[in-house]
Write a structure and sequence with these properties.
153 residues; 7 helices
């Protein structure tokens, strides 16, 4: 009986400056994934993941495609390493993702192409960031309005 595995991909919050650096340095397959994602997005995602700044990497519209990219890059590196050792990775019985990780899961399962996945993840992140920015503005406006109200004695 062959071993059974599941691939679970993380969501936003798992990003950090330097993530995946060792795999990107060692694996041509991981670098190819990064190059494809950068071409699809039209921006140097790898540079931001490597050197930050952390505040930029934490922005939702950057974090989500970055996490998807490094997740698929790590999977490509694992497949490459296993094949070089003569023991290809077993296909999983389950592929899942937490929140934004669902996009990496869809790419890993072959349901969508990497280029489409990173563009979708960026758009999702842009919409989420815009929603947060609007909420913050409304909350600040409400706080200002309340603070101008006369106090009752």
């Amino acid at each position: 009986m062959s071993p059974k595995s599941a691939w679970i991909f993380p969501g936003q919050g798992s990003q950090s400056v330097g993530m995946g650096a060792a795999a990107l340095a060692a694996s041509p397959a991981a670098r190819a994934v990064l190059a494809e994602a950068e071409a699809a997005l039209g921006e140097p995602l790898g540079q931001m993941m490597a050197t930050g700044p952390a505040e930029a990497l934490e922005r939702t519209e950057v974090a989500q495609p970055a996490i998807l990219t490094i997740s698929i890059a790590l999977l490509a590196a694992a497949r490459e390493r296993a094949a070089a050792a003569g023991t290809p990775l077993d296909e999983p019985i389950l592929i899942a993702g937490h929140s934004a990780g669902q996009y990496a899961a869809a790419v890993a399962a072959g349901a969508i192409a990497l280029a489409d996945g990173v563009r979708l993840a960026r758009r999702r992140g842009e919409l989420m960031q815009a929603s947060r920015d609007r909420k913050s503005t409304r909350l600040n406006s409400s706080h200002e309005w309340i603070s101008r109200m006369p106090s009752s004695a």
